[in-house]
Amino acid sequence: MAATKQLMDYAVDEAVDAFVLLKSADVRTAKNGKQYIALVFEDRSGEISGKYWDASPEDIENYVAGIVVHLQGKRENYQTHPQIKIFHLRLTTVGEPDDPNQYIEKAPMSRADMEDYINQTVFEITQPTWNRLVRKLLAEYQEAFFTFPAAKTNHHAFQGGLAFHTISILKLAHSVVKQYPDLNAPLLFAGAILHDLGKTIELSGPKSTTYTLAGNLVGHIVLIDGELVRACEPLKLDPQAEDVLLLRHMILSHHGLLEYGSPVRPALREADVLHQLDELDASIMMLDTVVEHTAPGEFSERVFAMDGRRFYRPSEPKPKES
Amino acid sequence: MAATKQLMDYAVDEAVDAFVLLKSADVRTAKNGKQYIALVFEDRSGEISGKYWDASPEDIENYVAGIVVHLQGKRENYQTHPQIKIFHLRLTTVGEPDDPNQYIEKAPMSRADMEDYINQTVFEITQPTWNRLVRKLLAEYQEAFFTFPAAKTNHHAFQGGLAFHTISILKLAHSVVKQYPDLNAPLLFAGAILHDLGKTIELSGPKSTTYTLAGNLVGHIVLIDGELVRACEPLKLDPQAEDVLLLRHMILSHHGLLEYGSPVRPALREADVLHQLDELDASIMMLDTVVEHTAPGEFSERVFAMDGRRFYRPSEPKPKES
Amino acid sequence: MAATKQLMDYAVDEAVDAFVLLKSADVRTAKNGKQYIALVFEDRSGEISGKYWDASPEDIENYVAGIVVHLQGKRENYQTHPQIKIFHLRLTTVGEPDDPNQYIEKAPMSRADMEDYINQTVFEITQPTWNRLVRKLLAEYQEAFFTFPAAKTNHHAFQGGLAFHTISILKLAHSVVKQYPDLNAPLLFAGAILHDLGKTIELSGPKSTTYTLAGNLVGHIVLIDGELVRACEPLKLDPQAEDVLLLRHMILSHHGLLEYGSPVRPALREADVLHQLDELDASIMMLDTVVEHTAPGEFSERVFAMDGRRFYRPSEPKPKES
Amino acid sequence: MAATKQLMDYAVDEAVDAFVLLKSADVRTAKNGKQYIALVFEDRSGEISGKYWDASPEDIENYVAGIVVHLQGKRENYQTHPQIKIFHLRLTTVGEPDDPNQYIEKAPMSRADMEDYINQTVFEITQPTWNRLVRKLLAEYQEAFFTFPAAKTNHHAFQGGLAFHTISILKLAHSVVKQYPDLNAPLLFAGAILHDLGKTIELSGPKSTTYTLAGNLVGHIVLIDGELVRACEPLKLDPQAEDVLLLRHMILSHHGLLEYGSPVRPALREADVLHQLDELDASIMMLDTVVEHTAPGEFSERVFAMDGRRFYRPSEPKPKES
Amino acid sequence: MAATKQLMDYAVDEAVDAFVLLKSADVRTAKNGKQYIALVFEDRSGEISGKYWDASPEDIENYVAGIVVHLQGKRENYQTHPQIKIFHLRLTTVGEPDDPNQYIEKAPMSRADMEDYINQTVFEITQPTWNRLVRKLLAEYQEAFFTFPAAKTNHHAFQGGLAFHTISILKLAHSVVKQYPDLNAPLLFAGAILHDLGKTIELSGPKSTTYTLAGNLVGHIVLIDGELVRACEPLKLDPQAEDVLLLRHMILSHHGLLEYGSPVRPALREADVLHQLDELDASIMMLDTVVEHTAPGEFSERVFAMDGRRFYRPSEPKPKES
Amino acid sequence: MAATKQLMDYAVDEAVDAFVLLKSADVRTAKNGKQYIALVFEDRSGEISGKYWDASPEDIENYVAGIVVHLQGKRENYQTHPQIKIFHLRLTTVGEPDDPNQYIEKAPMSRADMEDYINQTVFEITQPTWNRLVRKLLAEYQEAFFTFPAAKTNHHAFQGGLAFHTISILKLAHSVVKQYPDLNAPLLFAGAILHDLGKTIELSGPKSTTYTLAGNLVGHIVLIDGELVRACEPLKLDPQAEDVLLLRHMILSHHGLLEYGSPVRPALREADVLHQLDELDASIMMLDTVVEHTAPGEFSERVFAMDGRRFYRPSEPKPKES
Fold this sequence. Notes:
6 copies of one chain form a homohexamer.
Chain A lengths: L14 E15 L5 E9 L2 E7 L4 H6 L5 E11 L2 E11 L19 H13 L4 H20 L13 H19 L5 H10 L4 H4 L10 H5 L2 H16 L6 H11 L16 H24 L5 E2 L12 E2 L9
Parallel strand pairs in A: 3-5
Antiparallel strand pairs in A: 1-2, 1-4, 2-3, 4-5, 6-7
Helix pairs in contact in A: 2-3, 2-4, 3-5, 3-8, 4-5, 4-10, 5-9, 5-10
């Protein structure tokens, strides 16, 4: 794949000719009564949408999420939003690339490196209760933790995104505890590792991610709290002991506000810090993508997850570091 | 106790001479630098506050929460709020009544009757998963369920208040499912019984009730969800099976709004109904007390738990029923 | 009509062949510049929408609200929302059913039964002022009260819906006053009967219901208050006497919050209860419809009148009652 | 009274020796258990509060609202709020001034002038329905309209304040209709005259003003709407005719927002303008008083009716007009 | 142009045949995949939109904002919103009118008259610091001040609108200071003249108005504050002297609420009045346009800048003035 | 000072005997009419309040803010808030410590170290415009920048707090740009250094800090923007050039929300990050103080600057780092 031009590399109005993955394919009815397919194309550089007009029943049967296709078209902007105008689309033939895994966006860190980083941090959780609970829950949800995205959309919505997001927070947390030594580092690290682990139950998996019934009716915050309580049994821990309650509180309060789904607001310094670091990493990741998709000297489209704000990409490139 | 006049029976400006329980006794410093004790007197008819000025160190040692005392004073109104102006206060002597249990406000239904009603309703939970979970959790928390108040203040803040409040909701629920037969009665009943059971962990007990650390850091909604998940283990139930999730959702969403501490909003008809019946019973109980403490033809003080509204007690008594 | 399959009975993808009423017919321009008619079909089982593409001027003249037509098509889902894909539409011919009244959704209780129930309740209003005001206003608006819907859309939007909604509240009110005997039953019943009577002035009538100018500029709450004041004159009542003010307050405060159009918030126990019962009945009626239109194991579309929440219909049918 | 120094004329720390009216006198208990009287002194220049410590039962009987007393003390500031430190207080003796009416703050316009202005404006209401309704309601509430305050506190809380506030709005309205000739002047004038007339029912009267039961349970906005509907009967007007509805809407919407007690938001240009002129006059009147009570170069205390803002009084006097 | 029928004069369904200016021309893709141009036509009477379907590449090149075209079509209503159904559109030929300036909507007051009015008012600013700052900044931004619109859309969105809006406020201010003589007239006038002057930097110019980068990143309120500080240097004024701060505060607080972009809330009587007069003039101007575009007896579309309210145009014409 | 026990070292109920600084001394009237002085004692370890009852005129003259006094008393808790019960207070005599500077709380970093850190960071601002503006403004406000507190109360309310808070943010910023290399480091550093520099104009100085008139009427955000614009003149920079606008935007948007006084919301990635780092440092500093003042196993009082939340101090000390 090395030499091939990636989806995100095409300039506006440039012709596109590439193998890409169909990330999603929704059949809709146009206002003229005919059907079209709203497609999202993906490769390792990112994703971009396009509309396949006047779709025949056969097209609808062929072009479904999860397969690799050959795409010819043009990179355009639709209301400052990038899209592909499709000229020609076809299934791959024998000998052409057809492995979806080669086209899925992944975390910019290998799984092995991520596992190392997490294991290293677990050693730093020197309080035995927290250490045991973290080990136990990580062991149970290990596979999903290292492959699931951190969200359906918005930020870290790629394979391995959940672990990558967790590690980004842990890196920030390491800087913070160094700068503010009164903070309880083991508590902050344990909370950071578990805070989003419930997403492995809330979301359906790394591909074509949707919400599960448990995700919709209970939510990842309370789901992982339930699993933590359940893990106390074999570890012979009292779920109402102070140290267990502190860790449960870290998880439960990490959305910061009741309106955002936390049943309690942060009442520990470390819980407040975890909430802030979570927001900091999520927003930078989101804005990196937003700014990258905006032309220099222009404002982005409204970013819904950032209160509908539009962000400016300066016309001048950023200065060289000293 | 039968012939004795009760605290709530005294009219404004009437002299008070009675044995009463000290429900709480907080030592404070007056603006002139001297200490006084802010007391709350209680008997089975209710509670009323009074201030014991210029308290000596000995007074402070004597007059503590939980003991029966002899009170002489006058029933007054302080800014439309009833209080006792204390003329004389003393400890009881030998032979005088001194059993605090005789002076504690209790639910207006005997424990036996409450147990009967709950047991009867459990029979109507015809879905096996919900029936087993309700039985298991009730068995574990039975003693507390029938003795704890439903809240520290506001409504049902008396011994047995938790079970009584639960039963009031169940009675309303029986009327509602009869009128709207599409509703899932067993789900509504199971949710109603468990919805506040977490208060047995959130609150410290039936007397001098305070919040526990678990109550402050986790909250009764998530505490009982955790216990429910734990109860699945011996019952060999999957906490993520649909029927278990439905019951968990009933509990988790019963505050109605995220801002009120529910991590999810009601997404089942029965969950929405449970939330509404909970509010209906709580508000009527609260307003009954408020109106009872207000003179005919007057507005009450602001009721904080009802958005600070003031309620009017009509000057005319309510008409006889036909 | 007995043997005919009703609109609500068709399964997804099932062919439809039926006589139905055109409830509404709005001519719109498609994005391709051509005109189409957005139709709503109705029979006694409910209503469902469909689009008639490429409408000729003659079609536009023919297919207007209020007539019976013959419809051939297919029951589909458009973004989880049911609709009819129209294959063929035609006017009825001689001998075919053409009486719109046979296809209008009606209250699930006969008018005679509704009148009986209301009359019965009026007897229970034992306070003379309230009894006379209720009789007088019911007499004046009787015809509209028993035929109007309770709203343009959302809940009880069918013929007789206003009286049916009022009766549902009265039934709940009867249960509540039995359970909480301190409540003033006659006041609650009188308030319940009058609370929405202003809708007979606010709305245009039982069919193709729209808002009147009086509805838009004054609103049903204040409209019925004005009529009540006017009714005092022949009854020789002082509109500022306490008992009249209590009843006016019941009506004026029944939306609960100023933001919802009540000029005063409930300041009587009975006013607060009326507000809550109004919401309880309206929300259950709305959700019954929503859930009925949702497939088992699926979430409904967002329900705007319930804060945009989506509701889940469990995949398992509800358990048999014991 | 001419030569006497007025209450508002005393500087901070200046000795006060004057006859003044007791506007209000509330008996309260100090934190040391003794009683004191919270007094408000008034004369035609305004009002100022003071505390009478260690009040004997005789003092409490003597110093009641509505009498003239002789006051000796010192003008002080308590947390930037002006007050009188009382040195000596006594009842008046024979021959000393004792007519409360000589000490009541009044509108800065004579009643005769106010009546003239209103009559003059009624002539400009050239639409017959509005003219007749305004005349009829003014005739009924004339005495109260020209003597009541416009509010219990905050702005225009003086005798004649209701009419004076109405006239201030009418003056602004005359300027506005001259500048924006598309506005319907007769509608704006009629609405302005009636907008607060319901205060004659909502408030108890010109002295020691409190809210009536009608004021608390219905409110001045709906009260005057009811009276307007009632006035239609003898005038043989239909309360649902367009011109009557326009006038009702002017009154009903004049608080601008539902949250402020209007059952409908302004839906007529003139209704929106009336709301804005009402706010403009009320806020200027309130701020004139606030700034007058603030020392040059200082910020006022928080003004609750203006969202708790503090207002600055510049240290330099305002420049001479050209 | 005198005899020609103007755009705003056409009735619904009337044939249109006129030379008009293209105010804006946005190319969009229809749901059928073809391109169309969303046009806004303008002449001195106002503006109206229309869609040019199935646009060829040549059409797209021809029909761009800023040129005069010949339009044939029909005046229609699309969801109560006026629009032109285009029958035929063509470029102008030699000899036909082609000067865009003849078709631009302008302030209803000549530039000379506006300059006179402003100059006259500057004389009334008798405080020397304010007078010098106003003169200095007006001199610098004179050309833009008299030609820019007051906003991109909503109100005063026409050439000269900024100066016209300023003058309207000044006229209201003159009435107000006459009625409330305690107000500091020179401060109010100086603040009114400068309050929106920053729009000359925030907006791109009188035609095809857009926001500049300075407008987006800083905003007109802070931009003019910066210019005022800069103007202090040559005038040898201290930007932190009290009189300069008062004027800066007038500008900075004129949006009234922090949520509306003012960094401080009004803390001077005159600042509060300026904010209210700004809203009064803006809302009347907006509603005059809204009502003019609404048929008698109908409600307008929702007006977004007025909280989405709809406004009613009475069916009866307004009465003659007396 | 080394061996002396510091104010923050005393346990509850321990006797206090120490020289301390009077940080503030407010004379108030008790409810019994006598005067007392509300004192705040300070030394380098922090501050604590106490009340001096029954103050004579001489006491009031003696005990004023800014002097060193000798204090004997007892460390108590008043509603979980620490205070000193004063037994004896006297002025210092000859030979006793009396230098206020020895008792003022200071930044935990020397001025020389802070200057070094800032100078070092300025070198990393490799974009010339930003570098020059930062140097110019730092040079102008240098003395105040290194001595002022960062706020009147809440966080960093000590001498040198402004520079120390700025440096804390810069340290966090260095970690963040290392972790997210797409961020524009020079812009983030320049914005961080200038973001609160306006506090040198908004606040009165390092001792007995109050708000200046400029602070109240303009606020520190806009004040420093004005100074930046003024600084452009001698540096021959255009205040509306893109690079200057980017830096102005960093300052103007750093409060994040309009409601918090920023006239614009962050529209640059770096501006959003600056806002978040500002909050992170401020909240950790505040909570460190809050938790330090709370007993192990207890909740703190409500922290107003953190939405009134209470924070828990775990009963167990935090675990040793690995």
